[in-house]
Amino acid sequence: MRRSFNRPDYIAHTILVLGVLLFAFPVWLVFAGSTQDSDAIMRGDLSLMPHLANLSVYPRVLLHGTMGTEPVWHMLLTSFGMAVAIATGKIFISVLSAYAVVFFRFPFRQTAFWLIFVTLMLPVEVRIIPTYAVMAGFGLINTFTGLWVPLIASATATLLFRQVFTAIPDELVEAARIDGAGPLRFLRDIVLPVSGANIAALFVILFVYGWNQYLWPLLVSTDPALDTIVIGIVKMIGQETQTDWSAVMATAVLALLPPVAVVVLMQRWFVAGLTEGEK
């Protein structure tokens, strides 16, 4: 008997709902806590229902921050600029690197690719001290440039773009060559449009990666004016007895909004980049 695919799959829907609740409940708990008294939170009397009369905490932290921290809008702007710079830089360098490895013929081409690939095996902590020494040598400590420049090289993105570029048919390359298209024109008119969905999907992933950076901004910057939103939340916690927990939770909710907005706005391209097969 042929199975009817119009019948609802209650088990799948139940699992999906449970997954949504599992991920959404902590966010709801943080939002509810942001509208409640810090002393109540310290006592463990956290209610699951938000106190809407206390939503004034959001404009307060957004415009003024808390004691010892920058206004949240400033930290959000710093994080946004760093995340965009990291995502854009990684994509730009990775596209050019993969393009050179796939479409150019030069000595030790594969060796160069494998040297890039080997860097995947080195954790960030191994490279942190020499990277800091290089940034100090260039005078980029406590600068916005120093926040993102060391993070714009990506072996993973290079590998992904290489796999996309190798799927481009040789006949298309030969046809472009016959038409007189040079390397830059071929990159602009053929390679980039074909890779558009992959670039968009990777941008979303790398934006979230840059937004969540903690270790490197903590090391490279001691200037409060360069605090990212992640660093700002850590500073807000401070001593447990002096922490304004409602302000911390409100800041955490505000910190969620930009990456969520990027994912929602680029959802169509993000899904296409993850699901489309060979071109």
What report would you give on this structure?
- The chain is mainly alpha-helical and 279 residues long.
- The protein folds into two domains: 15-59, no CATH class; 67-276, MetI-like (MetI-like fold).
- It has 15 helices and no strands.
- The chain has helices spanning 10-34, 38-43, 57-64, 72-103, 109-118, 124-137, 144-148, 155-166, 170-178, 183-194, 196-211, 215-220, 229-237, 245-265, 267-275.
- The model has no long low-confidence stretch (mean pLDDT 84).
Name of the CATH architecture of the largest domain: Orthogonal Bundle
Structural class: mainly alpha
What profile does the largest beta sheet have? Answer: none
The total count of strands amounts to 0
CATH class of the largest domain equals Mainly Alpha
Mean pLDDT: 84
Tell me what portion of residues adopts beta-strand conformation.
Answer: under 5%
CATH H-level superfamily title of the largest domain? MetI-like
Q: Tell me the overall shape.
A: globular
Instruction: Give the N-terminus to C-terminus distance in angstroms.
Output: 37 Å
Task: Estimate nothing, just give the exact number of structural domains.
Answer: 2
Helix count, DSSP H or I runs of 4 or more residues: 15
- Provide the CATH topology of the largest domain: MetI-like fold
Rg over CA atoms, rounded to whole Å, is 24 Å
Helical content band: 55-70%
Weakly predicted, low-confidence segments:
none
What's the order of the H and E elements? HHHHHHHHHHHHHHH
